TrEMBL record:
Domain NfeD-like C-terminal: 92-146
Organism: Aquabacter spiritensis
Protein name, as recorded: NfeD-like C-terminal domain-containing protein
Family matches, as Gene3D superfamilies: Nucleic acid-binding proteins
Domain of life assignment: Bacteria
Amino acid sequence: MAETVLGLGAWSWFLLGGLLLGAEIVVPGASLIWLGLAAFAAGAIGLLLGPAWQIQILLFALLSLAAVMAGRWLAARGGAGSDRPFLNRRIDALVGRTFILEGAIHDGTGTVRVDDSLWRVHGPDLPAGTRVTVIRSDGAVLFVERTR
């Protein structure tokens, strides 16, 4: 095995890079792609400069580290913001909005109508018909205060 790798020389890095990129398709997590790209870079440098195999391994290790760090940085940057940021988080979109109490808040609990549904609210005791503003949410419960 060692003779085969040494016989292939820098081409063994391209083989390793291809195997890593192929494994990326099967293994979830988007981490092997960076190692595969580092292997391709080590192979290219190996072909151009022809360093000893020990230097190539060290070069691959350093390039892998740099590629993984670059990948993490790119992932942290994220993509463009969504045009629908509250999709699947409807309750978060209600914070800051004003509604009229459908059912009076009695003992800290009441209801408001939001579009075609009723939502449970918690807040100070207020009569039905009072305008309230949602200040926060917890699960499916809205916390409100009287609108000033």
